[in-house]
Please model this.
Amino acid sequence: MTAPLGIYHAQIGSQQLELPLMAVSDDLAIALLISVDQGVHFAERAGQELAALLEPLGVEVIASVATMGIPIAIEVVRTLGIDDYLVFQKTPKIHLADALSEPVRSITTGGTQKLLLDRNRVDVVTGRNVALIDDVISTGASVRAALALLRRAQANPVAVAVLATEGSAWRDTLGRDAGLVQSLGSLPLFRRGANGEVSAIA
Model:
C-alpha cells in the first residue's frame, strides 16, 4: 500500500476521525474514509445519527451499495426498526445473471463496473419510500446509478444518507437529486503540489 501523504482530522457527526491522505492521481489526493475499518462503535453511532435524519421522511426500506455502506445501513435499519434492507452489488454472482444493471465508475476503483439489482429483490422496493445509504459521495456516480435502478424498480427515493460528502462534483452529477443528500460531514479534495505539499481545494 502506498504511504499516506498526511492525516486529515474529520468530523463525522459527533465523531472525530483521523483519515489518511491518499493519492488518487498525480495531482489529486483524498481523505480516505473506509467505514469498515472504523470499528463497530463508530458504525453504530453513525447509523443512529443518520437514522435521526431519516426518521421524519417516512422511510420504508433502506438500500445500500456494496460494500462500504453495508455496516452503516445495518445500523440505520436497526435504529429505525426496519426488518429488511436491499444491497446493490458490483460483483457478478450466479444469482445476478439476469439482474437490472447500471454502469458506474468510482473515484477509488479503476475502470467501469456495473451496479446490479437482483430481480428477485425488486418487490422489496417497488412502490415504497426508499433511503439510499452509502459511506462517501464523491463523484456521485454510484449514487446516480443506484437511484436509476430504484426508479426502474418503481421505488420512490426519498433520501441519500452518507457519512460524508467529498468535494462538490457530486452535485453536478446528481442534478436535481442533489437535494436528496443528507450527510454527517464533508471532506475536501486535496491538491498535490510539485514539491510534495498537500492542500485542500474543495
User: Anything to note?
Assistant: DSSP finds five helices and 13 strands in the chain. The chain has a mean pLDDT of 92. Helices lie at 40-54, 70-80, 122-125, 141-152, 169-174. The CA atoms of residues 60 and 129 lie 5 Å apart.
